Amino acid sequence: MASLSKLPLSSGPRSAAVTWDLLSSLTGGALAVYIVAHMALVGSVLLGVGVYDTMAEALESSGVAQIDGPLVFAVFLVHFLAAGRKVPLRWTEHTLVWRQTRMLRHSETWLWLGQALTGMVLLLLGGIHMWSVLTDLPITAAKSSERIAHPAWFVFYVLLICAVTGHAFVGLYRSGIKWGAVVRRKRATARRFFLAGAGVLGLLGLITLVRFLYV
């Protein structure tokens, strides 16, 4: 009989960690798909105000718009809880992480730090965005234009666009590494691909933002 000292350790904590990581990746992937679809729908204003208003009216009359916000925010909270386990919460821990990141000068570490920071920013800005939209239904191009025309709101949405696109695509890249979809020899190519995707989507968001100023 094998001695107790040679028996394998319990896989409970490790299994729980894998479960949390899987939940983080699944919810993050779902949110990334939603972000692309959402920004494409909002970008319909580039085809004309009538197209945007018709699409918004269709989503509201079907009840999708009313369900969409709370559901997405709930998924985001689950994602934040799953991914936030590894994010330092104390100021001393933040200082230590920042010092070690600067010392290592490793691109992957910088990406992780950027993802963690944008995630915390998104929790605040995303909540404000959803609240401002859902408490002022129906959605119309005129209302969006009036809100964005205010300098504070314009800066707010520029920050939101930059944070959400960067966080989403870096998250997809890091999930690909974590689950083996992105092998080591392909990391540089995958990094350029995902960062280019973030840039294209971010540019679409900024162009859309400017377009609302002239509705």
Automatic annotation (TrEMBL):
Regions that span the bilayer: 31-51, 110-132, 152-173, 193-214
Keyword Secreted on entry: no
GO molecular function (one): metal ion binding
This protein's GO CC annotations: membrane
Highest taxon above the source species: Bacteria
Any one GO BP annotation for this protein: tricarboxylic acid cycle
Pfam family, one: Sdh_cyt
Family matches, as InterPro entries: Fum_red_B_TM, SQR/QFR_C/D, SuccDH_FuR_B_TM-su
Keywords: Heme, Iron, Membrane, Metal-binding, Transmembrane, Transmembrane helix
Compartments it resides in: Membrane
Name of this chain's protein: Fumarate reductase respiratory complex
Provenance organism: Desulfohalobium retbaense (strain ATCC 49708 / DSM 5692 / JCM 16813 / HR100)
Upper lineage: Bacteria, Pseudomonadati, Thermodesulfobacteriota, Desulfovibrionia, Desulfovibrionales
